[in-house]
Amino acid sequence: MKASSVSLVLGLAALLFELTVSAVFLSVSPNRQLFLRRDAVSLSCVDDGQTVDGWAVKRTTGGQTQTCDGGQQDFGGFNGSSCIIPHLFPSDSGVYWCETRAAQRSVQVNISVSGHSVLLEFPKLPVIAGSDVTLRCKTRESSSQLVYFFSNGRYIGFGLAGEFTISDVQRSDEGLYWCSTGLFSTSSETWMSVVDPPPPLHLSVVGLICPLVVFCLYCMSTVLMVSIYCSRKRGNEPAVETEHGVEGGQRVAEELGYVTEHDF
Question: What pTM value is reported for the model?
Answer without folding.
Answer: 0.56
